[in-house]
């Protein structure tokens, strides 16, 4: 079990890690070692996550989410396999922690009587200024 939050823990077999060669500069080292990590996590089939967290996690995942509901995270910044592995897992756990936070429900509010009066007075004042900008009358 991998603890993510106080109430959420993931099983080890829910995370699928694949080690591939990293792209970019690095010379001979990067061409012969598989240090980059591709981490896959199936949101929809995860028994560890509650339904509301799954829905929020899918929304947070964005372009990292496949049509089947699998998050794919790719880490290749570090030179070692273990550091890339921890980076990918850390990013996944951060996403799950964000999804675990329930958004506060918005309570509709109404403007106070004083704020309505202030708004109307400023409108009247502004209308008076604008009316003085017109052509003078022939009275």
Please give a structural write-up.
The protein is of the alpha+beta class. The chain has one domain: 2-Layer Sandwich (Double Stranded RNA Binding Domain), CATH 3.30.160.20. The chain is built from 4 helices and 5 strands. The protein has a 3-stranded antiparallel beta sheet with strand order 3-4-5, covered by helices on one side. The protein has a two-stranded antiparallel sheet with strand order 1-2. A hairpin with a 5-residue loop joins strand 1 (2-3) and strand 2 (9-10).
Based on Cα principal axes, name the global outline.
elongated
Beta-strand level of the residues, as a percent range? Answer: 15-25%
Question: How big is the Rg?
Answer: 28 Å
* Spatial arrangement of strands, main beta sheet: 3-4-5
Class derived from helix and strand content: alpha+beta
Residue-averaged pLDDT, rounded? 85
Largest sheet: 3 strands, antiparallel
């Amino acid at each position: 079990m991998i603890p993510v939050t106080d109430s959420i823990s993931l099983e080890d077999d829910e995370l699928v890690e694949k080690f591939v060669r990293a792209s970019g500069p690095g010379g001979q080292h990067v061409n012969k070692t598989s240090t980059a990590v591709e981490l896959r996590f199936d949101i929809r089939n995860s028994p560890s996550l509650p339904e509301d967290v799954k829905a929020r996690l899918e929304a947070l995942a964005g372009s990292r989410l496949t049509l089947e509901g699998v998050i794919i995270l790719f880490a290749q910044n570090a030179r070692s396999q273990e550091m890339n592995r921890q980076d990918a897992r850390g990013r996944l756990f951060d996403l799950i922690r964000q999804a675990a936070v329930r958004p506060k429900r918005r309570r509709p509010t109404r403007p106070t009587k004083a704020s309505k009066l202030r708004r109307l007075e400023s409108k009247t004042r502004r209308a008076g200024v604008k009316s003085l900008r017109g052509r003078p009358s022939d009275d």
